[in-house]
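User: I've been trying to design a sequence by hand for this structure and keep getting stuck. Would you show me what you'd pick, starting by listing the structure so we're on the same page?

Assistant: Good idea, let's start from the same input. This is the structure you sent:
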């Protein structure tokens, strides 16, 4: 091992530790690692930035745009709602959910599908007096499985496809991954439907937990006639920056004022609703003219009116809220919503609300105003997980059907190799813009640039691994060490390493790090490189053991009230099923 190889492995290990402990956003950590390689002279700038010109990255950007049209159309919601209406049992509902979700995920980005369906599933579960935790992990797993069927099913497939093209290989055809994707999807869905109801936990939602213990979250102080700041603003009364407390609403003569701004004027008889560290309310109660009302029946329903609602949102990996306190991000002004509570790993985050720094996967309970936008594609900072209370209005249904037709035509042309997938998506997006199914501004807003930065930076790191000889060195150690155990042992090791990485960090980063090593393993073992690429694509997507390995697992983590061990309990058998099936097919039929 050369010093250069040692340096590459050391920096990558530091990056993996940072990703695991969520020191910063994943895209920033991976880009910083790439920046270090450039600054230390390990590779040239051109060699490090090769990912920013990769075809797979641009294809993913176009996929975001196409998926956003479907997301706005409401077709996915209508489709799933139709299937759920006919369900007569929990197991029947599960099967009616998982099959269409896996089919949709084969052709659309699974992240918006799961984000869109989470509130619908929770509403159905609430109406049928069933815990949503019986359904949310399965819809995430079904979307992951479905994404392994086609080239466009997940960004991981497209990233590996782009890397194969860069390495002078043919890349995947549109349905080439289905040789593994279809069997693991069928077996995986069978496991989830048959065993899911028995092994899935029965957890309550955050809203239900808060409703049962409202006094732990809310306190009500009544403004008396002798309060010296009647007629003054909230800021003048020093009720804005309190120790551990957060003023979220004011009840005034039957009306509800929310969110409360610094300029809101205090009236005699106002009832001030506080959240945060309720144990510190005594300090505020000692102020002249403020009386704690212990007899009031506070509930979340009381915080709602025609203008306000109570919402649960899940912080995404790409959120700009990560790394900032709620106060620093100006959450209330930015989203027209007050934060009632923050939960992490199924436990409440203690302390003053404004001082809490959200992390990916945190679930925030909000009291929202009229301007709060519930549409997930408008906010990349979080996903709305609250059950919908009325039927969606499908304003863009026509555009949805047209885009579905365009997508079907594009798939046909790509399948018969008339066009490459990149060319097909360029044409589809161009037609959508010409037909005014979306504006250029809407197209730009639908692209998740932080995801693209993560992928492009990871591709650069993959190039570093190749150019420095690190991939060749690691592959030689792997092949030589397992040679006595045969080719099957090598294949299992590559799968296991990829799958372990994707559980610890992110699926795209795991794929990019492992593909150069896998291709070197294939060369040294005289294997078909496409077989190893297929193996790594499935292993990188098959994240079932933790909420952090895959975005869809993160989306359902908080709304389902899950604990880390729930993913292990449900996901471990599924992981074994997928691994055994994938390794067997690749070993006996592909290699």
């Amino acid at each position: 091992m050369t010093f250069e190889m040692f340096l590459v492995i050391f920096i990558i290990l530091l990056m993996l530790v940072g990703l695991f402990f969520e020191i910063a956003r994943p895209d920033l950590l991976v880009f910083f690692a790439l920046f270090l390689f450039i600054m230390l002279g390990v590779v040239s700038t051109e060699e490090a930035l090769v990912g920013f010109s990769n075809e797979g990255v641009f294809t993913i950007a176009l996929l975001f745009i196409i998926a956003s049209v479907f997301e706005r159309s409401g077709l996915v919601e209508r489709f799933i709602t139709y299937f759920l209406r006919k369900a007569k049992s929990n197991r029947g509902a599960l099967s009616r959910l998982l099959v269409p979700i896996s089919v949709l995920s084969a052709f659309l980005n699974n992240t918006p599908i799961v984000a869109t369906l989470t509130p619908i599933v929770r509403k159905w579960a609430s109406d049928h007096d069933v815990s949503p935790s019986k359904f949310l992990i399965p819809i995430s797993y079904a979307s992951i499985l479905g994404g392994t069927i086609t080239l466009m099913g997940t960004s991981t497939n497209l990233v590996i496809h782009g890397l194969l093209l860069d390495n002078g290989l043919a890349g995947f055809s549109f349905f080439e991954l289905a040789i593994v994707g279809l069997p693991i999807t069928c077996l995986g869905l069978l496991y989830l439907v048959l065993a899911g109801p028995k092994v899935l936990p029965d957890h309550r939602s955050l809203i239900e937990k808060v409703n049962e213990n409202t006094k732990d979250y809310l306190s009500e102080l009544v403004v008396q006639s002798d309060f010296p700041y009647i007629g003054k603003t909230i800021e003048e009364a020093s009720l804005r920056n309190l120790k551990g407390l957060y003023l979220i609403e004011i009840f005034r003569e039957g009306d509800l004022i929310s969110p409360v701004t610094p300029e809101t004027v205090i009236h005699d008889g106002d009832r001030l609703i506080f959240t945060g560290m309720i144990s510190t309310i005594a300090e505020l109660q000692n102020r002249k003219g403020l009386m704690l009302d212990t007899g009031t029946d506070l509930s979340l329903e009381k915080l709602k009116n025609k203008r306000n609602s109570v919402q649960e949102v899940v912080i995404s990996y790409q959120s700009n809220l990560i790394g900032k306190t709620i106060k620093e991000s100006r959450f209330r002004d930015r989203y027209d919503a007050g934060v009632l509570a923050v939960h992490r790993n199924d436990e409440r985050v203690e302390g003053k609300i404004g001082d809490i720094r959200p992390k990916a996967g945190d679930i925030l309970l909000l009291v929202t105003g009229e301007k709060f936008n519930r549409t997930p594609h408008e906010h990349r900072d979080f996903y709305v997980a609250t059950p919908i209370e009325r039927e969606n209005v499908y304003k863009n249904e026509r555009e949805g059907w047209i885009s579905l037709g365009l997508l079907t035509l594009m798939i046909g042309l790509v399948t018969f190799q008339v066009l490459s997938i990149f060319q097909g998506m360029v044409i589809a997006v161009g037609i959508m813009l010409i037909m005014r199914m979306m504006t250029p501004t809407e197209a730009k807003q639908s692209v998740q640039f932080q995801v693209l930065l993560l992928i492009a930076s990871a591709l650069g790191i993959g190039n570093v691994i190749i150019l420095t000889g690190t991939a060749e060195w690691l592959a030689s150690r792997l092949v030589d060490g397992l040679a006595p155990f045969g080719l099957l042992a090598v294949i299992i090791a590559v799968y296991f390493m990829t799958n372990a990485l994707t559980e610890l960090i992110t699926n795209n980063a795991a794929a990019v790090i492992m593909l150069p090593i896998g291709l070197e393993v294939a060369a040294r073992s005289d294997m078909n490189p496409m077989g190893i690429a297929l193996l790594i694509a499935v292993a990188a997507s098959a994240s079932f053991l933790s909420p952090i390995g895959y975005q869809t697992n993160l989306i359902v983590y908080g709304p389902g009230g899950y604990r880390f061990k729930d993913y292990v309990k449900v996901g471990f058998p599924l992981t074994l099923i997928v691994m055994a099936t994938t390794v067997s097919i690749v070993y006996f039929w592909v290699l």
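That's my pick for every position. To get oriented when you compare it with your attempt: Residues 564-590 form the longest helix (27 residues). The two ends are 30 Å apart (CA to CA).
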